[in-house]
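Give me structure tokens for this 205-residue protein.
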Amino acid sequence: MDAAHLNVRRATVDDLPQLIELWKQEQLPWETLEKRFTEFQVAVDGEGTLWGAIGLRIAQHQGHLHSEVFRQWDLADTLRQRFWERIEVLAHNHALTCLWTQLASPFWHGYGFHTPTAENLERFPKEFADQGGPWTVLSLRPEPPQTVDLEREFDRFAQAERHRTEAAMEQARWLKRVATILAVLLFLGVLVGMTYLLMRSSGGR
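Here you go.
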């Protein structure tokens, strides 16, 4: 098999039967991976035979390389090289800052994957925490500047608007009560005045 002539691309639903076959062969949790098959990059020949696959899970500008499988393990490093070329493109397109993996092959260490520092671990995505260790990491680029969380800012704005609306409504209710009291007092004043005038008019006769 000449790996140079294989087509490396994103997995499709048509690749699932062969992916499941290889996942079962490597005793990977194929029921879970089947639901996430679009994470996988596959190497396929002209006849549609799938020779290898690797998963790339993305979260928070970081990637997780996982679940590599090969039809022939003597082709593993050759296929890893092809996958790595593809992963570099994907990492650039998604502006990934670093890649994490639990793959233990010396190939990945040769590309700079290392034990994570305390700073790396501070940024470790919680989405990857469902996997066990140990982890290695490869830094690709500096972390992007903190961006404004528009959804959170909108929630804060909406909450502030609600508070202002509630305050205005409470003020309106208070003014209404005051106006009602003044109207009652005015009515009573007019009533008392009219009674007084009637009493004087009757007394004058």
